[in-house]
Write a structure and sequence with these properties.
This protein has 421 residues and is of the alpha+beta class. Helices cover 46% and strands 14% of the residues. Strands 3, 4, 5, 6, 7 and 8 form a six-stranded mixed sheet that branches. A three-stranded antiparallel sheet has the order 9-2-10. A two-stranded parallel sheet has the order 1-11. Helix 4 runs parallel beside helix 6 and helix 13 packs across helix 18. It starts with a helix and ends with a strand.
């Protein structure tokens, strides 16, 4: 597919406010896309080059993109700034600038989607001395080769302002429409996406193998799993009535982290929003090889800061200060963490999502070192008694925690779904 054709689809998507029509346009786009380009088209349509957790950023702010547009179309930066101020859309400024040069003096080369993607990826991954100037030159060179409509959308992508108005979830609907012309397959596709939260990869599997290909989607190191969520029940009697035998664990007022470990140099740490924040938690990285008895593992847990003088847990507002890009080591000393692991989703190449919780707990207990100081097994009780559940809850409140999380003792891990707690 030529990028100019993709830009025409983007124009249609931008022009509609109807979610159903948007889904149908996307379905047509994905149907037309080739197997080798469908994943990249998904990323581009979301204004990205990869899943969010991959952390690939252009680092081209508005000021630099103004220079790009000016250089591409031989205009003065001040002129571009004035036009941008008028329209509020630098993509539109680029489109107008390109139209002025489409008089035969410059011919567009009509590059393919894959060619444009590779050029953009090259820009995003430029690094080292002089990388900013190289980024500007490469972006300007790409714009010169594109038609005016394509230039509009390519300029918007580094700015994070594609303005098409949908998310990964709309693409899940579109994939269902692509294979069934309705949303009847959405749940099946979403279940696979929850296990491997990479919309480009899911689209590629559906395109190549159909829905049957999703059966082979398993948990994978380095790709986040959508965290299982909680929903509230009014009282302990209702909990036991609905859930029977339950595991009851403290509810920490920290930050939910999914830890992927495959050796000291292969660690990813994902937030519940699937952001990879591994560089922000050097203490967890350093503790893993010492406190984990496994070569490969995915853990689900909660990190909570504590006062190094008193040992008392800190409120969420303090723990969240650990999420930062600068002075990370200093802040780690100021606000040390304990990571309470409460579930294990993968170990030594084996997906554990379908394993009952009681068995996963056994595996988790064998995986964590009992002498761990940073990575700690979350305590729990197992009960069928509303009174014992209430007593344990009140005990956690007295400790300054939020309460308890209650889990079905033999339930599988259900990514992205809300279970009773």
């Amino acid at each position: 597919m030529r990028f100019g054709e993709l830009a025409q689809y983007f124009q249609q998507l931008e022009a509609t406010a109807s979610r159903n029509l948007m889904t149908e346009i996307l379905a047509d786009l994905l149907k037309e896309a080739g197997k080798d380009e469908v994943g990249k088209i998904c990323y581009l349509s979301l204004g990205r080059l990869a899943p969010l957790y991959a952390g690939i950023e252009f680092n081209l702010a508005e000021k630099l993109m103004i220079r790009v547009v000016a250089r591409a179309f031989e205009a003065k930066e001040e002129t571009v700034k004035k036009e941008y101020k008028k329209t509020g859309d630098l993509g539109e400024v680029a489109q107008n600038g390109k139209q002025k040069t489409e008089d035969g003096r410059r011919k567009t080369s009509k590059p393919s989607v894959l060619q444009v993607y590779e050029r953009l990826y090259e820009v995003a991954t430029e690094s080292g001395e002089g990388s900013v100037e190289r980024k500007i030159n490469k972006m300007a060179g790409l714009l010169r080769e594109l038609d005016s409509l394509s230039a509009k959308y390519v300029v918007r992508i580094p700015l994070g302002k594609l303005r098409l108005g949908f998310s990964d979830l709309t693409i899940l609907d579109a994939l269902s429409f692509m294979v069934a012309r309705d949303k009847s397959k959405r749940q099946e596709i979403e279940e696979a996406f929850n296990v491997r939260a990479d919309i480009g990869q899911i689209a590629k599997v559906v395109k190549e193998k159909g829905l049957k290909g999703l059966k082979g989607i398993k948990a994978s190191l380095g790709t986040p799993i959508m965290p299982a969520l909680c929903q509230r029940l009014p009282n302990t009697e209702e909990m036991i009535k609905k859930m029977g035998r339950v595991a009851v664990e403290p509810k920490y007022d920290g930050t939910r982290l999914q830890v992927h470990f495959a050796g000291a140099k292969k660690v990813s740490i994902f937030t519940r929003n699937l952001e990879n924040v591994v560089q922000m938690f050097p203490d967890i990285i350093e503790a893993l090889p010492k406190e984990i008895k496994a070569r490969q593992v995915i853990l689900d847990g909660e990190a909570i800061g504590f006062d190094p003088k008193t040992g008392k847990f800190l409120p969420f507002q303090e723990t969240i200060k650990r999420k930062r890009k600068y002075e990370i080591r200093e802040k780690a000393k100021e606000i040390p963490l304990k990571y309470f692991a409460f579930d294990i989703l993968f170990k030594e190449g084996k997906d554990l999502l379908g394993v009952p919780f009681d068995k996963r707990r056994e595996i988790l207990e064998k995986t964590l070192s009992p002498a761990g100081k940073t990575i700690i097994l979350s305590p729990q009780i197992v009960t069928e008694s509303p009174n014992e559940l209430r007593r344990y809850h009140d005990e956690q409140i007295k400790k300054g925690l939020e309460g308890v999380v209650v889990k079905k003792w033999q339930a599988p891990y259900d990514p992205g779904r809300r279970g009773y707690t």
